[in-house]
């Protein structure tokens, strides 16, 4: 029986699976989706290629797992940040600050790489589905703030662009609290001005 480095076999398997996913994320971010192969991921994780297949039947299956896990942590953080907040402006602020603190921890790296990757169609469709679901609270806050019930998409895209620029600044070393303060000043002004017109 292979040596395990955990209290139970189940914990050992969970650790091995997590190591493979983390190795795959590193390969994905550095080299793209095409480089995420059983051999490359196994080598990066320090496991034999044969061990890969004990956890994932194929590279696309591993990419699918990355897709799911890339959004789970962000969704959980956002849900916690928005709990108990009902005012649209408060929800907008909580969403933005959470996104930027996640960016500071590198949590968005997998999702960003996946959005840019040449993924299998079913994986790409799932990425877009999860991305849309993750941003639903933001879109709802924008709609409530602007009253644009009929056509909020353009405003949502512009707000999203501001948040993306803020995330990029944070990923390059800027302080997430300072960047959030500046971004929210712009967003609150823009959305409030739009409402009053």
UniProtKB/TrEMBL annotation:
DNA-binding region coordinates: 37-56
* Signal peptide boundaries: none
Q: Where is the HTH tetR-type domain?
A: 14-74
Among InterPro entries, the record links this protein to: Homeodomain-like_sf, HTH-type_TetR-like_transc_reg, HTH_TetR
Enumerate the PROSITE patterns for this protein.
HTH_TETR_2 (PS50977)
Asked whether the UniProt record includes Nucleotide-binding among its keywords, one would answer no
> What Gene3D superfamilies would the database entry show?
Tetracycline Repressor, domain 2
Superkingdom of origin organism: Bacteria
Give UniProt keywords alphabetically: DNA-binding
**One Gene Ontology MF term:** DNA-binding transcription factor activity
Q: Does the keyword DNA-binding apply?
A: yes
PANTHER family per the record? HTH-TYPE TRANSCRIPTIONAL REGULATOR PKSA, HTH-TYPE TRANSCRIPTIONAL REGULATOR RUTR
Q: What is this protein called?
A: HTH tetR-type domain-containing protein
What's the source species for this entry? Kitasatospora phosalacinea
